[in-house]
Design a protein that fits this description.
Layout lengths: L2 H10 L4 E4 L2 E4 L6 E5 L2 E4 H11 L1 H13 L7 H18 L3 H12 L4 H25 L2 H11 L4 E8 L9 H23 L4 H8 L3 H4 L4 E5 L6 H8 L5 E2 L4 E3 L2 E10 L5 H19 L3 H12 L7 H23 L1
């Protein structure tokens, strides 16, 4: 966005504020002609009064550009994100330029790809600002609790996976039958382990995870976010060189897991930034209105002051609409 344009339009709101019986109203000179035609003229005030009641969202964009453009300069990650989103939209409408332009007009309210890119860049910066604001508001107790309850050292393990042999169009009865068969096969392998057979040899012979079977089921080192929740819950309970005594069910099938090693838990200072990001995202995912409410709070923290009562009313109504829409989207 052209910074000079943004500054100029924002400054417009502060020009010649007058007080009337109906409250504050920022006005232009009624004698300034914006456009004229035969026998008539449209003044700058006419135009300003029209756009201020019909395009408050554009003013909000200008405000947020002032708040975020300098603090969050464009970088490679932003470039990549914006490009991927535009390409995704283009793929939806193929090479039909008319449909593409019509779609971005209908769904995003922009008339060109340049405008779409500007909109997506601003939204990217808004997301950065919201995440930072929420992260800064996290308490030390929240961070420490997450660290104590969720952070672990990297775990190294091997597994043997038995997949149910069933087609996607199978009946529920057929699926259950295949599940039972896979579980029984996994239980037989566990019995072989109890009888002293070698885990790696059994993985090579029986595991349906072809990518790891040839290496004795070796999964290498991993952490919480890398594995299915049920898998992680099971492996965390094991001691080194201990295997699960019951098959562990995940979306992939039934696993027999051998825990090989676990590294020391990292220090809090080493993972604090990651914890803050995780907690912030969890808050945003758990509260559909938090994104918009945080942007409102950021603007207020930056001492937004309205010099026109009608503009302030339009802004408040727009924010109420956004909050209501976000809230209803999760209840429907």
């Amino acid at each position: 966005m052209n910074k000079k344009v943004g500054i100029g339009l924002c400054s417009l709101l502060a020009i010649t504020t007058i007080t009337t019986g109906c409250g504050k109203e920022a006005k232009l000179d009624d004698n300034t002609t914006a456009v004229s035609l035969k026998g008539a003229k449209i003044t700058a005030t006419d135009y300003y009064n029209e756009i201020k009641t019909s395009n408050i969202s554009k003013l909000v964009d200008i405000i947020d550009h002032q708040l975020f453009d300098e603090k969050y300069p464009s970088n490679d990650e932003e470039d990549k994100s914006v490009k991927e989103q535009i390409n995704q939209i283009k793929e939806t409408y193929g090479s039909n330029e008319t449909m593409y332009l019509s779609a971005i007009q209908q769904y995003f309210g922009v008339s060109s790809e340049d405008e779409l890119e500007e909109m997506l860049r601003l939204e990217y910066k808004r997301n950065e600002a919201v995440e930072d604001y929420i992260k800064d508001a996290l308490s030390d107790k929240e961070i420490e609790n997450y660290y104590n309850e969720n952070i672990i050292g990297d775990i190294k393990a091997s597994h043997i996976l038995i997949k149910p042999d069933v087609d996607s169009d199978a009946t529920d009865e057929e699926k259950q039958k295949a599940e039972n068969k896979a579980k029984k096969e996994a239980e037989k392998i566990i019995k072989k382990l109890k009888d002293g057979e070698d885990f790696a040899k059994l993985a090579k012979e029986y595991s349906d995870d072809t990518s790891t079977a040839k290496d004795g089921g070796n999964l290498g080192y991993f952490n919480t976010d890398d594995m299915d929740e049920n898998f992680m819950d099971a492996v965390k309970k094991l001691n080194n060189n201990e295997y699960t005594k019951e098959p562990v069910k995940t979306q992939y099938g039934y696993h027999i897991i051998l825990k090989v090693d676990q590294k020391d838990k990292p220090k809090l200072k080493e993972v604090k930034d990651d914890i803050k990001t995780t907690l912030a995202n969890a808050k945003l995912n758990g509260n559909s209105t938090l994104h918009y409410q945080t942007l409102i709070d950021i603007r207020e923290k930056n001492n937004i002051k309205w010099q026109d009562d009608k503009l302030e009313k339009q802004y408040n109504e727009l924010m109420d609409q956004l909050l209501e829409s976000a809230s209803s989207s999760t209840t429907n």
